[in-house]
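Section: Multi-chain targets

For targets with more than one molecule, the full set of components is provided together so that the structure can be written out for the assembly as a whole rather than chain by chain. Components appear in the order listed by the source. The example entry contains two components.
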Amino acid sequence: MMAALGALLVRDLKLAARVGGSGLLGVVFFLMLVTLIPFALGPDLNLLSRIGPAILWIAAVLATLIGLDRLFQGDEEDGSLDLMRMSHVPLELVVIVKGLAHWLTTGFPLALLSPLFGLLLAQEPDAMLAVMATLMVGTPALTFIGGIGAALTASLPRGGLILAVLVLPLMIPTLIFGVSAAQAAIGGTVPFLTPFLVLAALSLVAIVTGAVASAAALRGGG
Amino acid sequence: MPTSFLWGLANPTRFMALSARILPWMAALSAVVTAAGLYLALFSSPADYQQGETVRIMYIHVPAAWLALALYAIMSLSALGTLVWRHPLADVSQKAAAPIGAAFTLLCLVTGSLWGKPMWGTWWVWDARLTSVLVLFLIYLGILALWRAIEDPGQAARAVAILTLVGFVNIPIVKFSVDWWNTLHQPASVIRMDGATIDASMLWPLFTMAIGLTLLALTLHMSGMRSEILARRARSLTLKAADRAAERQRPLPLSAGSAGAGSA
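Its structure, encoded as tokens over all components, is:
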């Protein structure tokens, strides 16, 4: 069973890396958003450094949405999802592995590169580290909450917009605690660890509920 | 037995017959109680000593908020009915509850905003209660969008049921947001462990309005279920008629080769 799941992970990563895959497009989109916001706000460095963590988190939410509509749709179209449904590996684990592959190509590189984008937004070093840590811990929640929407819309021809409408309200708690943890690290009355641990808990809950709900949606939608 | 009663209703024809008889009575009752409630709320109850006449917004605002949550609870129970027991009427009930719940949530937000302007001096604050109700409204909109996106009613019902149950996490957040966070919105004052902290002269009009609007919501829910059942019958009849028409117009098969070439 582990071999099958490992093969699935390698397959999804290869699909993302090769021609036609979305690869690191999420990161490029993230950079676009970070560039776009100072154009709208004006290049006021004090303002940017104050709201920088919030900008980075909103950009992370939107960048996660980008690849999500294809998370199960490609497999639904070419029939490999049917094979996964019929295999002896539980569909919940398949969902977790596919989510992990998606996170490795969007959330993880995004968190890793966030200090670089923090430079553009005039972030202090400790703020950069805080944003990086919160994104590292919080983006799995975004991926797996989004995965529920991806599973629900897998068989729809234009699932992208409806996917965003379905999952964005559910992502709000993650956004709240992600930004408040990052803000707490720069200063404030709340210690950094309190919202950070809630964020970690949200991610763990999202992985479990996301796996169960997405698998149920994939079984029912066929 | 409630379960055997629910299964008795699993036959849509029986449900249609029963609801046709109950519905006029429920509609009349909700009209009478709501009218009485409106009279009590707008004319015979006293104005607040601090808020003046604006306190009368409460008699719409508070029942609307209760119903926004109650209809989500109905939707979640129906979602369980769809996923666990495969009750044939559960997905109809789910679908009928969604627009009514969304309407009451919007009513709650709008009346709250109209009340907030004179009392707090602003139409909107990003306070925990207000924000969580706004999120509830967004979840309702997502559910309505998903109903419209999937064509097959059975498949749509299962997808919406999963989304409804996942979105249920927001309901306790709405209910307890005023206790968990220190907010501008006042804490609960009617349903409390130590009794209501609201005077009887305002409590009775509020309860009457709540009962009247609950009856209204149940009436709308039942009539929504009836029209959904009829819409599904019409849909299956249309599909059958289209099938028969296609059957008639299909040319007689000449040979396998020419038919294959024609369709390719």
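The longest helix of chain A spans residues 125-152.
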